[in-house]
Amino acid sequence: MRLKPLLLSVLPAAAVVAAMACNTDPVYPGNQFLGTFQFEARLDPANTTCDASMPEFAQVDDAGVFRFEGTFSRNDDGGTGWLTVQGFNRDAKFDGQQVDSMLRATSQRASCGSTCKDSQIEESLKVTLFSDSQARLLNRDCNGFDGGIPDASPPAPTESGYDVALACGALTDVFLPGSCTCNPTTCRTAYKVQGVRRD
User: Fold this and answer.
1) 63: which residues sit within 8 A by CB, 6+ positions away?
2) Measured between alpha carbons, how far is 142 from 195 in angstroms, rounded to an integer?
3) What is the pLDDT of residues 134-184, one digit of tens each?
4) For residue 90, which of 73, 77, 103, 100 has the smallest C-alpha distance?
5) How do beta strands 65-74 and 32-43 pair?
6) pTM of the entire structure?
7) Alpha helix locations (H) across 11-95?
């Protein structure tokens, strides 16, 4: 299966090498480790304007899905946080149970021509985190999440670690032309996202 171009591939080379070379337990930024999640991102055709059949816009399997692993961590004195993917730490904002991580990176695409060097992708991952008791009320399935927060204890630190079990939300890639002439000039690929804590 091919992998997602920005979330999994557009990473600083040094970060990737360091992640591959490290044999010890990873160290995450901040002083509060929330958890590592196995995410499944499923193409959302209703909110997608790009031609998802083109690999440069959506690299998914035959079911319209791609999978990735991500880790949330933060400072416990405020909303500053991070999402770590393949050893690369990207900023994440925490607001209650909501997490928003945005990243913009240069990414060449064929639809901008062979001489284009500065076309970009702006990627946003927005999820709601649920505690174990909240996840049980959702049957541990994001299809049961309608935007309302289940009436149970919210995610919080405990003696055995942070109580968070499920992440539900959306991943959106907006393709930008930079200084290039692209066809289309800009478009959006959207996914519905479910993350299950694995650690």
Assistant:
1) 42
2) 9
3) 999 999 999 999 999 999 999 999 999 999 999 999 999 999 999 999 999
4) 103
5) antiparallel
6) 0.87
7) 13-21
